[in-house]
Amino acid sequence: MSFSEIYLLWSESAALSAVIWSVIIMLLTYLAREPMHRMIEAVSSLAKSAFQQASESLMRAERRLAERNTEVLIAAGREASEHLIEREFERINKIVEADLAEYPTLHRKISDVITRIDEDYKQSSDVPPEAPGWNKAISAVAQIPTSKSDPMVGQILESIHSSLEKNHDKTLEEYRKSSRDRHMLLKNMLPSWRGMNSDLKQVDQNVNALMERSRVVDRQMEEYEKIINETDSAKKTLSSSSLTQFFVAGFVLAIAIGGAAINFNLIARPMQEMVGGSSVMMGFKTANIAALVIILVEVAMGLFLMESLRITRLFPVIGSMKDSMRVRMIWITFSILLILASVEAGLAYMREVLAQDDAALRASLINSAATAIGVSDRWITTAAQMGMGFILPFALVFVAIPLESFIHSSRTVLGISAAGTLRALAFSFSVFANASHYIGRMLTSIYDLFIFIPLWIETRIRGSNRSEKKKEKRGFNPLQTESMKEVS
Amino acid sequence: MKNILLTMVAAALVIGCSSEEGPHTKGVYMLLDTSGTYTEELVKAQHIINYTLAKLNPGDTFAVARVDTASFSEKDIVAKVTFDDRPSAANRQKRQFRESVDQFVKEVKPSSYTDITGGMLQAVEYLNEAGVGRKTVLIFSDLKEELKKGYVRDIPLQVGGYEVVALNVTKLRSDNIDPREYMDRLQMWEERVEAGEGTWRVINDMERLESVIID
To answer: Collapsing DSSP states into helix, strand and coil, what is residue A250?
Structure first.
């Protein structure tokens, strides 16, 4: 039975059939209304709860990840802070050892100077010349009542006067001499004063430097306490610091990769002379792979060198080695680097030789009239290439520093990114949960819209039934009142 | 120290375990038509040979052979070389190769017949034996085959994976009278090569030669 036959089952007229079928479908749909509503509601509830659960579990995962990120961040911050404080204490120790260790000597020096100054000071004190003891005797002689006209007395007085004058001059001369000596002593004291002043200034500077360091340590300790207490400000600071480190280290690593690429180009071509120009490994020229391996070995040696120097801390095994072993490792890695750098310089020279040979051959094959240009200046490019070949391996050594920062900060950055992704997913699932709820309600309404005629009829019938019941209730009430009255 | 040793061993393995010449190398076999007046065109052929030499890399194979009365012979190979792995040695070989070709061009004598099919068969045999990856046969000729009586050359060419390039296909006097001869000649060679599962190209403008020999 075809569709058209089923369609025209009730009537030959398509329009009438459409009406009949619509009525039938509408009736059937009306009859299936309750189970259909329940089904839509069940499906929407199922979807809503599934999405809600997914969202909640994602949020839980995001919280766990955030906690783990915080732990990592705090641990990294604590380690860095401890390292800084340790470094500050080392500096303070150096100041104390270098400057304050000499403090007893300085103290003794200053005490000696002070004693010397004190002695000089005592010696330079101004002692007034004593008046001669026989002045009183002269006064007594002068008070003897005698005639002024007595020449004897006059001579005696003249003699006394001249003696006094002489004595005065002599005393004055002695006083001047002693004053000159005192001044000389005071003059000799001046360098001692200046020396003591300079020593005291030095002490002051040392103490100030120590105070400054102690203030830095105080600040570091405050930061450390904040980190230990896991305060929000510490978390924010550490997080932003980690992001900054990530991008800065990434930028420096990109520069290093550029340097490595230049290095690769310097040695890839001459490597063909060593390992052959036609052999291929895994789809790549063996010469290229060998050049790459040399560069990677250089980077590895650089990492070990930095690790042995305790500049980076990527390999705890190297850091915890005995000092003698570590020093031996420094020399070994440095020697390997030096050999590789020399090899690279040689390869760079070889590259230039090959390039010249190629250029000459091409010129003779393709254009025999071509002339070599600037051959005399070739040594500049050769020297530049050799220099680059020698320096770049050592420059690559310093890749270890940004690499360490990049690895450490990438833990935090990746954690933050993952947490953000989880949060976004949780939000999406939450939106889907709400959407499924409202879609269920919308589908119910659309279903009811399709069967609005039977629903309208149902409402009308129910309305009339309700009004009849009300009427019945109204008709019964007076009777009930009357019976109530009778009872009362 | 363990890490250093491991890294060095890895480097040694990478350098030491490299495979020898593989199928990535190129092989070029060039046939030079030396019949009649076509020998005058050999100066152009010299330029093409020089250009090809400049473009080939260490490990590649190159051979130049003349097309004469009976070309299916090693004796017709003017110069052949498989370039050394080392670029400096390869450059020396290129210089020697050029000298051989220059000498040949100076001393060449025109042949009476043109056995292109024999040359093609020789080229296929040589390049198959060389075991190269990309195989190219350059035919520097007017493609007019003239066989000596008794020579059998209606043999299907087995040139699967080969690129056959006809270079400097000059128009003969008869072609100018009836261009269909020229077109039929080209058509015939194209059909023969494609029937042998090879690819066929014609390059008369030497500036387009770069597309044939790719680095």
So the answer is: helix
Torsion of CA A286, A291, A294, A298, to 10 degrees: -150
CB half-sphere exposure, A318, CA atoms < 13 A: 24
Dump pLDDT digits (tens) for B40-62: 788 888 888 998 998 898 889 99
The answer to whether A329 contacts B20, with C-beta atoms less than 8 Å apart, is: no
Q: Please state the rounded mean pLDDT for residues A24-30.
A: 89
Residue with tokens 């093609």, as numbered in its chain: B120
Instruction: Show the tokens assigned to B181.
Output: 């001869």
Contact B149, B114 (CB under 8 A): no
Q: Which two tokens stand for residue A437?
A: 């709820």
Mean pLDDT on A261-272 = 90
> What confidence tens digit (pLDDT) does each residue in A47-59 have?
999 999 999 999 9
Our measurement of the distance from residue B106's CA atom to the centroid of its chain's CA atoms, rounded to an integer in Å, reads 20
DSSP A283-329: TEEHHHHHHHHHHHHHHHHHHHHHHHTTS--S-HHHHTS-HHHHHHH
Asked whether the beta carbons of residue A297 and residue B17 sit closer than 8 angstroms, the reply is no
What span, in angstroms and rounded, lies between the C-alpha atoms of A81 and A234? 11
Segment A365-374, tens digit of pLDDT: 876 544 555 5
CA dihedral B136, B139, B143, B148 (to 10 degrees): -100
The domain made up of B25-211 is a member of CATH 3.40.640.10: no
pLDDT of the residue at B14: 47
8 A C-beta contact, residue A292 and residue A317: no
Q: Which residues pair with B201 in a beta bridge?
A: B165
Q: How far is B133 from chain A (nearest CA, A)?
A: 12
Q: Are A312 and A400 in contact (CB under 8 A)?
A: yes
**Is the CB of A281 less than 8 angstroms away from the CB of B88?**
no
Cα separations (Å) of B19 from A204, A270, B24, B56?
74, 18, 11, 20
Domain boundaries, chain B: 25-211
Q: Which of A278, A293, A300 sits opposite B85 (nearest CB)?
A: A278
Best mutation target, B17, B18, B97, to test chain A (most A CBs within 10 A)? B18
Q: Which two tokens stand for residue A69?
A: 């990120």
Residues 6+ apart with CB under 8 A from A207: none
Per-residue pLDDT band for A149 (boundaries 50, 70, 90) equals low
| The two structure tokens encoding residue B65 | 């052979």
Q: Do A304 and B88 touch (CB under 8 A)?
A: no
Rounded CA-CA distance A383/A90 in Å is 44
Residue B196 one-letter amino acid: G
One-character DSSP codes across B97-121: HHHHHHHHHHH---BS-B-HHHHHH
pLDDT digits (tens, 9 = 90+) for A298-320: 999 999 999 999 888 888 888 88
Name the amino acid, one letter, at A331: W
Q: Is the pLDDT of residue B32 over 50?
A: yes
